[in-house]
Design a protein that fits this description.
- It contains 17 helices and 30 strands.
- It is of the alpha+beta class.
- The protein has five domains: 20-158, Calponin-like domain (Actin-binding Protein, T-fimbrin, domain 1), CATH 1.10.418.10; 267-365, Calponin-like domain (Actin-binding Protein, T-fimbrin, domain 1), CATH 1.10.418.10; 372-448, Macroglobulin (MG2) domain (Immunoglobulin-like); 469-556, Immunoglobulin-like (Sandwich); 562-658, Immunoglobulins (Immunoglobulin-like, Sandwich), CATH 2.60.40.
- The strands form six sheets. Strands 2, 4, 5, 7, 8, 9, 28 and 29 form an eight-stranded mixed sheet that branches. Strands 10, 12, 13, 15, 16 and 17 form a six-stranded mixed sheet that branches.
- The relative contact order is 0.07.
């Protein structure tokens, strides 16, 4: 049957409800059962019908490609046999001129040379041609001609890929139109409903009532949708509406027409790209090179609530691109998004855009999920800690979508040393800080760091002194003295008096709770020192000092630490800055410690002791911006701490502030316990994302237990 002119009128009057007998006899007589490029595509039965559809579609595709050159093909067999149309087609597809072919062949030899030139150019461009030569085209072998044209459509229309194009096209269509449940590229499209839905996806609002179409009006539905696609989306009608509505529509014809909706410059690609960009901080331009390093893929997964790292945490080294892509693919699986390409393929510069686009489009159908940090709650038993004392931290999941078995917690101290925090079955853990300063709680889910910065401040260790002295305290704090006695002394025989540095006596009224155990009597007395200096606490029994008494307590003035004039002015990034402090106003000697904080992290600071009451501090700011200077004396915040100052050209005179910066919002803890706290400051756990605030302001309690042996 080779070399026979084919009629393409057979199906014009055919409808799904009609019989095959309605096709013209002329059309059947001229067809060869072998005339198909898709024999291996599992299309069975009625070969004469889908061969006619395929030949018509491929002819229209050629004409659409050659339209700028004003060349039109009427019959594939006759019009391609001299090689001129084939050479012009290859030039149009490759965008370059071919050398050595004749535009006006006068003999068989010229025709064979033309076809040879075209086939060689096709092979040179990476298109594999099997069992086809110049003689086959010149002699009009329809089967091989259709196979050749399909190879060109695959390479230049659908795209070069080692993956089956059918799979990639279906993956994107299924992701773009989940309601339609696309299962194939043939019969599912006969009613015209899916095509109408695809138009509305590519250009929202163009066909809003596609669900209301009558499936029995298939040809009319197809005609209306195809005309609309041609007018609004510039999709050529390479397929006739009657053919699209035919139950014998061949897969290659369906793929050829639908490929216009997913070409790199198509409206389908633009619609998907617009949605992806709505999830990203910075817009991208394609589904190829912009995805190679894995940063966009991870950002997309992350935007949907998936456990992917922030793009800034990913390595930009090309050797790490495949690893970055794999991280995004694995995180996407957690959201139910299955990979279309491998991580290796996605990281290649020649990645097929349709595969990446099909994977990205699946995220449109991911159910809304809050960010991971919104699914976790972090609580501390107190809003600050102290060196050497346990701080209790609790982390719990507030979403059924996140299991605590996937959550890990670690603490980063001011020296940037990270230690793992072990949690019990209820998510509670105990941490004993070894360094004063800002500490960060780091959460990871499946080894991906969680957004949200959780910080808490650790105060220095309280100063302790050996008996008979009592631990130093600040003026205004509450001092409690416990007196435990064995035997049964009369309560009126016990007297407690505090003597101020100026010699003023302050009688203390002992409180006598019920005995804590048979044979033991415990009494307590409290006072609030209001002078700086050394206080003496006298405890007498029947007028005599008890053993070890009287007891001393050094009380310092929390407002006694002074900064040298202009101490915090003129500090600049990456340059050492020094200032001096004077503690003589505290009234007693003591231990001075500093903590400089920027961006919720402690900055290293060296403290040099110049004399018994004078110090020089030196630090090197890492970056410009607002800093805070926390000053501790004997483990307590002093009055005016923290001092807020700015590093950099906008440096201003520091101001005193007893509250955190507005940039630091406080997290309230559901459980509080009695802690040692300065009467002048609130200690807070800082978290950069929360807007809720709470504070605790208690007076410091210092307790000294003294045994009275009777």
């Amino acid at each position: 049957m080779e070399g026979v002119r084919i009629s393409h009128q057979g199906l014009k009057a055919h409808s799904p409800e009609g019989a095959a007998g309605r096709i013209t006899q002329a059309g059947l007589a001229a067809r060869s059962a072998e005339g198909t490029a898709a024999k291996a595509m599992a299309i069975k039965g009625h070969e004469d019908l889908w061969v006619e559809i395929q030949a018509n579609t491929f002819r229209n595709w050629i004409n659409e490609t050659l339209k700028p050159m004003n060349i039109k093909v009427v019959d594939l067999v006759e019009d391609l046999c001299d090689g001129t149309v084939l050479c012009a087609l290859v030039e149009a597809l490759q965008g370059r001129r071919l050398k050595g072919w004749s535009s006006n062949p006068t003999n068989q030899h010229h025709k064979l040379e033309n076809v040879t030139t075209a086939l060689q150019a096709i092979e040179d461009d990476g298109v594999k041609l099997v069992n086809i030569g110049n003689v086959d085209i010149v002699n009009g072998n329809l089967k091989l001609i259709l196979g050749l044209i399909w190879s060109l459509i695959m390479r230049y229309q659908i795209g070069k890929s080692k993956f089956p194009p059918r799979k990639l096209m279906l993956s994107w269509l299924q992701a773009a139109m989940p309601e339609c449940r696309v299962g194939n590229l043939t019969t599912d499209w006969n009613s015209g409903v899916l095509l109408s839905a695809l138009l509305d996806y590519c250009k929202p609002g163009i066909f809003p009532h596609w669900k209301e179409l009558n499936r029995h009006e298939a040809i009319e539905n197809c005609r209306r949708a195809m005309k609309l696609a041609h007018r609004e989306l510039d999709v050529p009608m390479v397929l006739e509406p009657e053919y699209l509505a035919s139950p014998w529509l061949d897969e290659l014809s369906g793929m050829t027409y639908l490929s216009y909706f997913m070409k790199p410059d198509s409206t389908g690609v633009k619609s998907t790209l617009d949605w992806v960009n709505s999830r990203l901080e910075r817009p991208i331009k394609n589904f190829t090179t912009d995805w190679n390093d894995g940063r966009v893929a991870n950002e997309l997964v992350r935007s949907m609530g998936g456990p992917a790292p922030h793009p800034s945490k990913l390595r930009r080294d090309p050797a790490r691109w495949e690893e970055n892509c794999q991280t995004a693919i694995d995180a996407g699986k957690k959201l139910g998004v299955q990979p279309v390409l491998s991580a290796k393929d996605m990281s290649q510069s020649d990645v097929e855009h349709l595969g990446v686009m099909a994977w990205a489009a699946q995220f449109r159908n991911v159910p809304p999920r809050p960010p991971v940090h919104d699914m976790l709650r972090v609580a501390l038993d107190s809003t600050s800690g102290r060196v050497g004392e346990p701080t209790y931290i609790k982390v719990e999941s507030i979403s059924n979508e996140l299991s605590m078995s996937d959550v890990k917690v670690s603490i980063v101290n001011p020296l940037e040393q990270e230690s793992r925090l072990k949690l019990d079955s209820k998510g509670a853990g105990e941490f004993v800080p070894e360094h004063a300063g800002m500490h960060e709680i780091v959460l990871t889910v499946e080894d991906i760091r969680v957004d949200g910065r959780y910080f808490f401040r650790v105060l220095p260790r309280l100063v302790s002194v050996p008996p008979p002295g009592m631990a130093p305290c600040a003026a205004g704090s509450i001092v409690e003295v416990l007196v435990s006695a064995t035997g049964a002394p009369r309560r009126e025989d016990i007297d407690v008096t505090a003597h101020s540095p100026s010699g003023r006596a302050v009688p203390l009224e002992p409180r006598h709770p019920p005995p804590s155990a048979p044979g033991t009597t415990a009494s307590s007395a409290t006072f609030q020192p209001d002078e700086a200096g050394v206080w003496t606490i006298a405890i007498t029994y029947k007028g005599e000092h008890i053993q070890g008494g009287p007891f001393t307590c050094e009380v310092f003035d929390p407002a006694g630490v002074r900064l040298s004039p202009g101490a915090l002015e003129g500090a600049n990034p990456l340059k050492p800055h020094s200032f001096e402090l004077d503690t003589s106003g505290c009234g007693v000697k003591g231990d001075l410690q500093l903590d400089i904080v920027h961006d919720k992290r402690s900055v290293m600071c060296a403290l040099e002791k110049l004399s018994s009451t004078k110090y020089r501090a030196t630090f090197m700011p890492k970056a410009p911006g607002k800093h805070r200077l926390y000053i501790y004396f004997n483990g307590y915040d002093v009055h005016g701490s923290p001092h807020v100052f700015r590093v950099g050209s906008r440096s201003k005179k520091p101001r005193d502030s007893s509250s955190p910066s507005p940039a630091f919002a406080r997290i309230s803890s559901p459980v509080t316990r009695l802690r040692s706290e300065s009467p002048h400051n609130n200690y807070n756990l800082y978290e950069s994302n929360t807007k809720h605030t709470s504070s605790i302001d208690r007076r410091e309690e210092r307790r000294r237990e003294i045994f009275l042996i009777n």
